[in-house]
Amino acid sequence: MTEAHGMLAGRTVLITGSSSGIGEAAARLFAAEGAAVVLMARRADRLDALAHEIVEAGGKAETAPGDVVSEEDVANAVKVAVGRFGRLDGAFNNAGWATAGTPLHETDTAIFERTMDVNVRGVWNCLRHQIPAMLEAGGGSIVNTSSVAGLQATGASAAYVAAKHAVLGLTRAAAADYGRQGIRVNALVVGSTRSELMEEVLAGTPELEESFVARSVQRRMADPVEIAQAAAWLCSDRATFVTGAAMPVDGGWTAA
Question: What is the pTM for the complete model shown?
Answer without folding.
Answer: 0.93
